[in-house]
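Follow-up to my earlier ticket, as requested here are the two runs.
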Amino acid sequence: MKGKGYFMRERRLTVLVILCAAVAATLLISSQFLSAQNGKGKEGKGGDRDTPPPFYNPYPPGILPADLDFEIARVLREVDFIEAEALAQLRALPPPTLTNQPPILAHTGQRLNVLLGKVMNFDKNISPFNDRACAFCHMPYVGFSGPIPSVNLTMVAYPGSFQFRAGKRTAQRYTYSPSFPVLNFNQTQEAFFGGNFWDSRATGYKLGSPDEEQAQGPPVDTQEHALPDTACISFRLQTAVYKPFFIEVWGDAIDTIKFPHNTEEICETPGGAKVFGTNTMPIKLSPAERSIANDVYDHWAQSLDQYETSPDVSAFSSKFDAFLGDPATFPLSADEMAGYNLFKGKANCNSCHLDGRSTAPTPPPPQGIPGMPSIIRTSQISSALPRIHLASASEIWDWELSCEAVPALGQARMTIGHNLRQVRTAKCRRPRRAMSLWCRHSAPPQRPPGLTSRRSSSTTATLRA
């Protein structure tokens, strides 16, 4: 027979099992609640729960850093923290005063729009898998650019919502990007000015602001946020916790859009998926609703631009800003002034990196070295704009040339023996034909008198800046 002690032990075991089950259930419910707060595990209108994207890694070994998963998780935690900060700032802001004719939001209205842009910039839900905010590639502590050191040293472009599908270029900085004018050709200087993105494809022709149009690119870029339809922004904003602030600034037209029942299924499918074919507007809306969704997309970009324009991002607080404002009170050191003179003088840097104060001079004689063909040095910014500036090949020894490295360049470097490595950090749009011309000479040219195979140490820091 079983004794009394046996039944006591059995009773304790039963109580312990029940207690453990209760604790496990509590933890499960809590984790689901927190996931719902963060936009994860959200059920679509069809009742289907979001599933993580399949693993995507077509890259050769060594491209994806070993710490990538850990670093992505770190940055996402930081994004969540700043989003919560922006929400707290919005809620603490006194409401603006609606006044005047035409109506304006007086007093705190501008700050309201800035903070609205900030909270949207750090919202991960603006992506199919609720895992990528705009700020993921543009964090404040690295000048609003890419925040993962190992990515910067390897793959360079940042993985988008569909991990690990990555973009084509490194992330540009937000700072001062709103100051770029609409893309235009200056007849006097015979050069193009303005636009955003490395190739200035965000012209600003529609909204009057390249920065606003730049903001509209990543959400539907298949290698970044990867939303399949611009109307997905309106759809996600309809359930955003900050929607009342969006309506306060831009009105409540967003609530008049009646999205079809399969919208969540569409918006959680990355753009470029086979199911969409060539359809860039898979969400079926009436013409009036599509017009409203387009307006919302414009307003979303305009608020992001307001955030990037604000001192929160573009502070104009550097020593160089102070020098330009009052050189007598904030002078540059001798080395700094030498670097600035080189920047706007012989180095020709400001032919591409415009300082608004001067224009680069024509390169001084000699205009090239006999037997050495000219190569393309470009301030060219778009394949649709075929104007290309030429520079003498002698410039390679004079200063760091802004040209992209190609295999032929490596061959030329080994053959000629000059310091061509400085060219390897190039950003030329059309270097291949130039480099093939470079390697077409029959015999290596002689080194120019007085030039060595290394740059002088006095110019290296300036040229890298």
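Run two:
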Amino acid sequence: MTYLEFAIVVLLVAILATVAIVQFQPSHANVAFQADRLRNDIRHMQTAAIAWQQSLKLVKTATGYQVECVTPNQSGTPCNGASGTAVKDPATSQDFVVSLETGIAWHASSPSSLEVDMLGRPVSGGTLLTSDPTPFQLIADEVSWTVSIKHTTGFVSVP
């Protein structure tokens, strides 16, 4: 192989690497990860509601979400904090607060909160829903991922 052939091969590899780097967008993978995490956290919140026999709600914030008690200030329960205070995650003993990854945001159509009763079913003001609640949508660049909840079973999915 001559020097000229070697230089052409190196140039072609550099061009292909540049195209691959430009095409790769980690935000696509991050938004999929964040949607899976949100789904898992909603399931975790439902499990905690069942175990604690307390209605809980996931509240969307500008930079993430947190899980709170629907009825705060209950002494001797996990819901002993003030209104707007995140509950302690039973798995970590830390506040149940999650920040969205860099570059990921809520879609404008996402609801502000999701409330579940002590059986983990989605409710509104304590009343069982008769249709599926508005799904949560996460966006990054042009990519959008949806996290849906079924009204009858509380099943959470990421299509």
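The only thing I checked on run two: Helices lie at 3-23, 26-52. Let me know what else you need.
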